[in-house]
Amino acid sequence: MTERVLVVEDNDLNRKLFCDLLRANGFAVEPVADGVDFVERAAAFDPQLVVMDIQLPNVSGISLIEALRADARLCHVPVLAVTAYAGKGDEERIRAAGAEGYLSKPVSIHPFMSAVNALLDRRAAA
């Protein structure tokens, strides 16, 4: 079965890059440009992983992670936060909201794919 990754990223170039990388590595991908109807879209896609930008228009990625954690259908899905927030305490705050992985932008290909695979491997082992 092909693993499914939901990519929440408002920047068109970043979203395309993440989706293209994931597809090239055999993943089914659902791109999302904003947080509107995020929980319902995530539930309909049933992802094994969510790649979440934190700085989104109209809603914080942290709020979306918290909504994911509060939904019984999705609370088990690991989240990789990918963000320009790289200040002191940001990673801790993002992880406290429920993100299992954290990468600061700009993101290189190898660390991104390593983080994706590590979270999926950890989920499969659980």
Can you walk me through this structure?
Helix content is 44%, strand content 19%. It is α/β, with parallel strands linked by helices and 126 residues long. It has a single domain (4-125), classed as Response regulator (Rossmann fold, 3-Layer(aba) Sandwich), CATH 3.40.50.2300. The protein has a 5-stranded parallel sheet, with helices on both faces. The protein is globular and about 35 Å long. The chain starts with a strand and ends with a helix.
The total beta strand count reads 5
Rough shape?
globular
What is the radius of gyration computed over CA atoms, rounded to a whole number of angstroms? 13 Å
Strands in their spatial order, largest beta sheet: 2-1-3-4-5
Q: What portion of residues belong to β-strands?
A: 15-25%
> How many structural domains?
1
Give the integer mean of the pLDDT values. 94
Query: What is the CA–CA distance across the termini?
Result: 18 Å
State the helix count.
5
Major beta sheet summary: 5 strands, parallel
* CATH homologous superfamily descriptor: Response regulator
Spans with pLDDT under 50 lasting ≥5 residues?
A: none
Can you name the CATH architecture?
3-Layer(aba) Sandwich
Overall helicity? 40-55%
Q: Which CATH class is shown?
A: Alpha Beta
What is the CATH fold-level name? Rossmann fold
Quick take:
The chain is of the alpha/beta class and 126 residues long.
Pick out its properties:
5-stranded parallel sheet, Bact_response_regulator, globular, Rossmann fold, alpha/beta, 126 residues
